[in-house]
Write a structure and sequence with these properties.
7-stranded mixed β-sheet; alpha/beta
């Protein structure tokens, strides 16, 4: 390992109905990470998939002790899957990406090299390979979060982020939805934890369908923006 300060690394992927790509994603991750550090784990957080995602990962885990499956019995949302991934990670560094194969973990060394500058390294998509409507929604959303919370990062929702694990000791995450990335970075910023950014490549999805930017996801995110801005719980208990 070029940086001998990196003792161990957790990599995790939130996954929902990704049976056609998850094996390739995990195998690519294992190949990339094993060349960087000896002590590592690759975790898949299956968020209540109705297909064979969990079964595929279980088979991989039987053959490779570095691979681990964590399951939600029902679909709880992207934010819940990320929170479970952060809580499940056991190594010194924690990295996450999406399970859909739109990122290349061979670019992870670029993030690792920047840890000497800050304990959080945020990837941003150099050129985002998504439909125009998603690019528009993302642009508006980034502007809103910047204006409301003062969070100035290039690509809030880019699923290519690396953290020193101890930064999570001061942060309690609540969102079960797509607001999770914003919530995390806003709360870290409020604690004055330094962040740096690095461009990464983004590739078209080759299997499955995108689960983001649906009307339900957008409305839930708007609700979370308002609640966090007002200092209210993102997941209030149901009325008695």
């Amino acid at each position: 390992m070029a940086d001998d300060k990196v003792a161990s690394l957790s990599v995790f992927f939130p996954a929902f109905n990704e049976q056609d790509i998850i094996a390739k994603t995990v195998e690519n991750a294992t190949r990339a990470v094993s060349s960087l550090v000896d002590d590592y784990e690759v975790i898949v957080v299956d968020d209540g998939s109705s297909d064979k995602t969990a079964a595929v990962v279980e088979d991989l885990a039987r053959r490779d002790p570095h691979v681990r499956l964590v399951r939600h019995e029902v679909n709880r949302g992207y934010g819940a899957a990320l929170r479970t991934g952060f809580a499940s990670a056991q190594k010194d560094l924690v990295f996450f990406s999406d399970a859909d194969g739109q990122f290349d973990l061979q670019e992870l060394p670029g993030l690792l090299s920047m840890l000497k500058r800050a304990p959080i390294v945020l990837g941003y998509r150099i050129r985002r390979s998504d439909p125009m409507y998603r690019l528009f929604i993302a642009k508006v959303y980034n502007i809103v979060v910047r204006l409301v919370f003062g969070l100035r990062v290039r690509d809030i929702d880019c699923a290519f982020k690396l953290f020193r694990r101890d930064v999570f000791h001061s942060v309690e995450l609540e969102s079960d939805g797509a607001f999770i990335s914003s919530e995390l970075l806003i709360k870290l910023k409020r604690r004055n934890i330094p962040m740096v950014e690095r461009g990464v490549h983004h590739y078209p999805r080759t299997t499955g369908i995108s689960k983001g930017a649906t009307p339900k996801v957008i409305l839930r995110t708007i609700r979370d923006v308002i609640r966090l801005r007002l200092g209210r719980p993102l997941n209030p208990p149901p009325p008695p």
